[in-house]
Amino acid sequence: MEVLPVSVALATIFAWCAFAGRLRRTGLTAPIVFVAVGFVLVEVFDALDLGAEPELVKLIAEVTLVWVLFGDASGVRWREFRRDLGTYGRLLGIGLPLTVALGTSAAMVVLGMDPWPALLVGAALAPTDAALGASVMSNTRVPDKVRSALNVESGLNDGIATPVVLVAVAGTAVDEGITGIEGPGLAVLSLIVGVAVGAVVGALGAWCTKRARERGWLGDELDGIAVLALALLAYAVALLVDGNGFVAAFVAGLVFGNVAGDRREKEVTLVAQSGDLASMISWLVFGALAVPVILERWSWPVLAYVALSLTLVRMLPVAVSLLGAGFDRYSVAFIGWFGPRGLASVIFALVALEGLGTEGQPVVAVISLTVLVSVLVHGFSARPLADRFPDVLRTA
Fold first, then answer.
1. What b/e string do you get for 361-370 counting C-beta neighbours within 10 Å, with b at 16 or more?
2. Please, are residues 369 and 296 in contact by the beta-carbon 8 Å criterion?
3. Cβ-based neighbour number of residue 210 at 10 Å
4. How does pLDDT run across 299-353, given as a tens digit for each residue?
C-alpha cells in the first residue's frame, strides 16, 4: 500500500479523535468524515487501490463488526435485559421479519428484481447499526429503554438476518446458474450454535478473568488485551464449528459484561476503542470502494428504493411491533427512524459480491447506496432528534 493513503488515513484518525467533541456539534460523525476521505483518496489522488484485495477488505469489516458487537453487548445489564425482553422480542420477532418482507416486496416492485435477489436486498438492509450513531447511544437525554432497545436490536438482528442472506445468495446463484455455493440448509442451526459458543466462551473468559484478578495474576496493563482477544476467540470458535460468528461475539460480550465482576467496564474499554478505530478504517475503505460504484450505477428507481428502505420499510414494522409496548409516540417514531444501515449490510454486500461475482453488482449497488445515504441522514439527524426527547416527554 502506498504511503500517501496511509498518511492521510492516520492524520484523519488523529484529527477526528482530537476534535471529535467539537466536530460532532456540527452534525458530523466518524462515518461521514471517513467515507468522504476514502472517496477523495480514490477520486482525487487516485490512491488506495483495494480492488484487488477483496479478502483483506472483508476481513477488516468482519473484525470491526466483531469488536463493535462485543463492546456494545458488554454494556447491557442482565436486569435491564430481562426487564425489556418483551421489547426485544417484539423488534426481533415481529419487526425484523416484517422489515425483510416489506423490503423484499419493495425491491420486486420498485426495482423489478426477481424474488431471490429481492430477498437478498431486503434481508441485507434489514439489520441496523447502532454504532453508526454513537451520539444517540451516549446521549443521556434519550431514555434508557429506547437506547437499550436500539442497542440490543442492532446487536442481534444481523445474526438473525445472516441465514436469510445466505439462503438468498444460494437461491440467486441457482437462478443465475452459478456453481460452487453450498446450500445453506444448516444456516438456522448455525445461529443456535453461535449463541451456544458465545455463551460458553463469554462465561469461561469472565470466570478466568475474575479468578485471575482475585489472585493477583492479571496484570492491569494486559487485561484489556485479554478481552480483545476473547471477542475474536468467540467469533473464531463459532466459525470453527460452523456457527454464526457475529451472534457468538455479541452473546460472548453480553455474558462477559455481566459475569466478569466490577472491573468489567475498564476491561472492555480497549475493545470499544479498538472497535472505534477499526470502524474508522472500514468506513474509509467503504468510501474508497463503494462510492465510485454507486456513482456509476445509481438510478431514480434505486433512489426511490433507498428512500423507502430508510423510512416506510423500517418505520412501519417497528410501529406495528411496538403496539401496546408502553412507548410514547415519539419514542416509537424515533426507534423506527433511527435504524441506520452500516457494517452488517456492507459485509452482506461483500458476501453477495464474493459468491455471485458480476451478477451480484446490482444488488451491491443498491445496498451500498442505502448505507451511504444512511450514513448522511442518520448522522446529521441523530443529535437534533435525540435532543428533543426531554421536551417531548414532558408534554406527552
1. bbbbbbbbbb
2. no
3. 17
4. 899 999 999 999 999 999 999 999 988 888 899 999 999 888 887 888 888 777 7
Residue 163 DSSP symbol: H
Q: Is residue 133 classed as helix, strand or coil in its secondary structure?
A: helix
CA distance 388 to 396: 12
Residue 311, C-alpha cell as written in the block: 423510512
Q: What is the rounded distance in angstroms from the CA atom of residue 231 to the CA atom of residue 186?
A: 24
d(CA 334, CA 347): 26
Instruction: Residue count of the chain, please give it.
Output: 396
**What distance in Å separates the CA atoms of residue 373 and residue 341, rounded to the nearest whole number?**
9
Q: Phi/psi zone of residue 323: left (φ > 0), alpha (ψ -120 to 50 degrees), beta? A: beta
- ∠ CA 35-127-273, nearest 5°, is 55
DSSP letters of 331-357?
A: HHHHHHH-----HHHHHHHHHHHHHHG
What are the pLDDT digits (tens) for 172-227? 887 766 555 555 455 567 778 888 999 999 999 988 888 887 777 766 666 778 88
